[in-house]
Design brief:
Radius of gyration: 21 Å
Shape: elongated
Order of helices and strands: HEHEHEHHEHEEHHHHEEH
Helix content: 40-55%
Largest sheet: 6 strands, mixed
């Protein structure tokens, strides 16, 4: 299963980010906490290597709690300022404000020495499609100033958003990269909804998800669909279709309908808190290095 998706508007958006990067003080990268490695666009590290960086592990309420802590430590060990984020949680938003002040402390001190007052910090919001950038911005500002949606590709162009909290946001379109060298990266991106379903074989993708779940989270499908996790993934897939009465003409099972239900249940958190990739072993004991300046 080789999933690739890089429409023309993403290439255009990347070029615009490269132009706008000189205007900003801070890059805020939202990463889906369910795919902390596969969900990071490698182009962002190259484009923003001279800028202060903050990583928000967003949708952390949908991800495995233990893996959240391990991935948090992993990114801290890499030198990033990092925060677990649930865009609709007010506690997250308060923690975010304090962390921004910490990340940009040197910048604010330099401005003060130069006599520059009341100049807002300019932050660029970046991330893959459907990671929750616009929802985060709307929650932080307190009103719907950025367009949101449940499918990737809603934001097609940049948008400056002025706040009353000493900061301006530059909202950017979600962008992927031209080629996923590892097929599993494309599969994970598709599972969380960062690739358009219209170009996917959702039935095959569902089989991949079932295979992962029965190994990494045994029992989770049994509890949701009242079935037995016995047999091959295709047999379990058939049980899901039967449980949800996914039928077509002739009283035959519809795997397409079952795939839609399974993917929606996973993406919405109805299956439970799931992380699709494990953090590297041993990171909890490693010491963090200097933070990104």
């Amino acid at each position: 299963m080789d999933i690739q998706w890089y429409p023309g508007h993403m290439m255009k958006a990347k070029r615009q980010i490269q132009v706008d990067i000189k205007l900003i003080d801070l890059i805020i990268e939202l990463v889906d906490a369910r795919i902390p490695k596969s969900g990071r666009n490698p182009d962002i590290d190259q484009i923003g290597k001279q800028k202060s960086r903050l990583i928000l592990l967003n949708k952390s309420d949908l991800a495995d709690e233990r893996q959240n802590q391990m991935w948090l430590k992993f990114f801290e060990n890499q030198g990033f300022f990092t925060l677990l984020s649930n865009a609709r949680n007010k506690t997250t938003l308060r923690s975010f404000q304090l962390l921004v002040e910490k990340v940009c402390k040197e910048k604010l001190e330099r401005n003060a020495k130069k006599g520059i007052k009341n100049r807002p910090l300019r932050a660029m919001i970046v991330g893959i499609p459907n990671v929750g950038k616009s929802t985060f911005i709307n929650s932080y500002t307190g009103h719907a100033c950025a367009k949101t949606g449940h499918c990737p590709g809603v934001t097609k162009g940049k948008q400056w958003i002025s706040l009353r909290k000493g900061m301006d946001f530059l909202d950017t379109p979600g962008i992927l990269w031209p080629k996923f060298d590892d097929p599993k990266v494309g599969e994970r991106l598709a599972m969380v909804g960062s690739v358009k379903d219209e170009i996917l074989d959702t039935e095959e993708l569902s089989l991949k998800l079932i295979t992962f779940l029965i190994k990494a989270y045994p029992g989770i499908l049994e509890r949701r669909y009242l079935l037995e996790e016995k047999g091959k993934p295709l047999e379990i897939f058939a049980q899901i279709a039967e449980s949800r009465q996914c039928l077509v003409k002739g009283n035959k099972l519809s795997y397409k309908k079952a795939a839609s239900i399974l993917m929606n249940d996973f993406r919405s958190g109805k299956l439970g808190r799931i992380t699709l990739e494990q953090a590297p072993e041993g990171i909890m004991s490693n010491k963090g290095k200097n933070k990104t300046k």
